[in-house]
């Protein structure tokens, strides 16, 4: 089952998602719906429902995993599966690291959510590069064992996704904050 927007917000409540993570997830979902809707207009087969639900639920396990040091992607996938949301569990699981090779003419919800998450710093739309800098600084201090080159590699993949997505869209990555003003989840 794909959860509705209301069900996603109920899950945020059930799993005690703090307001700042809700704000982040909502903005990620707005970017994801902007991209998915516009890709769909070009004839690309994308599920807007799966994209929105995956984006809203992508950090469902974030707060509990901060305390337990578990992988919040894997835990989020488990939560989705336990709730019966199998159709979005892999989107949630891959919102940080994609597990497939990026192919030029294949589009999917995982890539859209992964990309959208990397455009949002807290509750502000930023460039991929600005988000990368923040991640390296913020997580590098907290977790010195994290491999910065691996983080950079994930962001290089995201740059490939950005290029691929915006090749089909009629606006540019830097236009997202302006175009987003007309996008809501209702």
List the secondary-structure elements in sequence, H or E: HHHHHHHEEHHH
Structural class, judged by helices and strands? mainly alpha
CATH fold annotation: Hypothetical protein af1432
**Which range best describes the helical content: under 10%, 10-25%, 25-40%, 40-55%, 55-70% or over 70%?**
55-70%
Rg from alpha-carbon coordinates = 15 Å
Number of strands: 2
Distance, first to last CA: 19 Å
**What average pLDDT do the residues reach?**
93
User: What is the CATH architecture descriptor?
Assistant: Orthogonal Bundle
CATH level 1 class label: Mainly Alpha
Question: What is this entry, summarized?
Answer:
Helix content is 63%, strand content 2%. It has helices at 5-14, 19-41, 48-57, 62-68, 72-82, 86-93, 109-117, 128-142, 148-168, 176-179, and strands at residues 120-121, 124-125. It has a two-stranded antiparallel sheet with strand order 1-2.
Task: Describe the SSE topology.
Blueprint (H helix, E strand, L loop, with lengths): L4 H10 L4 H23 L6 H10 L4 H7 L3 H11 L3 H8 L15 H9 L2 E2 L2 E2 L2 H15 L5 H21 L7 H4 L7
Antiparallel strand pairs: 1-2
Please give a handful of descriptors for the protein shown.
single chain, 186 residues, mainly alpha, Hypothetical protein af1432, two-stranded antiparallel sheet, globular
Can you describe this structure?
The protein is an all-alpha fold and 186 residues long. It has one domain (5-182): Hypothetical protein af1432. 63% of the residues lie in helices and 2% in strands. The protein is built from 10 helices and 2 strands, in the order αααααααββααα. The chain has helices at 5-14, 19-41, 48-57, 62-68, 72-82, 86-93, 109-117, 128-142, 148-168, 176-179, and strands spanning 120-121, 124-125. A two-stranded antiparallel ribbon has the order 1-2. β1 (120-121) and β2 form a beta hairpin. It is globular. The chain starts with a helix and ends in a 7-residue tail after the last helix. The model has no long low-confidence stretch (mean pLDDT 93).
């Amino acid at each position: 089952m794909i959860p509705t927007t209301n069900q996603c917000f109920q899950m945020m409540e059930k799993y005690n998602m703090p307001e700042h993570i809700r704000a982040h997830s909502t903005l990620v979902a707005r970017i994801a719906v902007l991209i998915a809707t516009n890709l769909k207009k070009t004839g690309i087969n994308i599920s807007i429902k799966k994209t929105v639900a995956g984006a809203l639920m992508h950090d469902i396990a974030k707060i509990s995993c901060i305390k337990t040091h578990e992988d919040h992607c894997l835990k989020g996938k488990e939560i989705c599966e336990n709730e019966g949301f199998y159709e979005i569990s892999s989107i949630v699981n891959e919102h940080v690291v994609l597990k497939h090779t990026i192919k030029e003419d294949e589009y999917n919800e995982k890539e859209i959510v992964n990309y959208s998450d990397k455009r949002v710093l807290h509750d502000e739309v930023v460039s991929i590069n600005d988000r990368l800098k923040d991640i390296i600084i913020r997580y590098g201090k907290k977790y010195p064992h994290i491999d910065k080159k691996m983080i950079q590699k994930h962001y290089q993949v995201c740059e490939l996704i950005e290029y691929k997505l915006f090749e089909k869209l009629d606006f540019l990555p830097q236009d997202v904050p302006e175009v987003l003003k007309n996008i809501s989840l209702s």
